[in-house]
Design goal:
mainly alpha; 61% helix; Arc Repressor Mutant, subunit A; disordered N terminus; 207 residues; Rna Polymerase Sigma Factor, Chain: A
Length: 207
């Protein structure tokens, strides 16, 4: 799937990656390489939507900071993805400010959806899109929706972890992801009639 954070890399289960992360904390370079290869594609897609062509530079800075703090990190691979995304987002905002571009400001946290199941399933509508097409479409969304979709679908974070990255409540992240995915699905249907059989997400299917 084009939006999968692990697309284009060897599939490794989260349990195996969590073990690799623990070994990496102890200085195992091969284990760290496996963690990097699993996490980096999603991180780059997320940052591309935030800073465009500066994504690789920002990602490098984020990884450098993460490497320095890795010995003190406690958590599994999901926690690491969230931690790295937080570092990367801060770096991205610094980059935007340095270039005189305005970062996305704080957005209201309004809990309108409580269920945490289904957001990733709804992303199946983008199965046929290339990474470039998918990121371009997501980037056109309002900032809160774009980041929610990127963190949940591209980086694979749950609503709680994504909320920690964005400084929002999980319900607000779920709601933003739902709105974003619904908008994207509608645009796909409008642009490609052949996809008209794809259902739009509804409230009952949101996770």
């Amino acid at each position: 799937m084009a939006l999968d954070s692990r697309a284009g890399t060897p599939q490794r289960g989260d349990e195996a990656l969590s073990r690799d992360l623990e070994r990496a904390r102890a200085g195992d370079e091969a284990a760290f390489t496996r963690v990097f290869r699993a996490v980096q594609p999603g991180l780059l897609r997320y940052l591309t939507a935030l800073v465009g062509n500066d994504a690789e530079d920002v990602a490098s800075e984020a990884w450098a900071q993460a490497c320095r703090g890795l010995p003190n990190f406690r958590g599994d691979i999901d926690g690491f993805r969230g931690w790295l995304a937080t570092i990367a987002r801060r770096r991205a905002i610094d980059q935007l400010r340095a270039k005189g571009r305005r970062p996305s400001g704080p957005l209201p946290s309004v809990d309108v959806v409580d269920s945490d199941a289904g957001v990733l399933t709804e992303a199946a509508a983008f199965e046929s899109l290339s990474t470039r097409e998918a990121v371009a479409m997501i980037s056109a969304l309002p900032k809160d929706q774009a980041e929610a979709v990127l963190l949940r679908v591209v980086m694979g974070l749950d609503a709680k972890a994504a909320g920690q990255v964005l400084g929002k409540r999980p319900g607000a992240v779920r709601a933003a992801a739902f709105r974003g995915l619904r908008t994207l699905a509608a645009r796909l249907e409008a642009e490609t009639p052949a996809r008209n059989t794809l259902p739009l997400p509804d409230d009952d299917g949101l996770r």
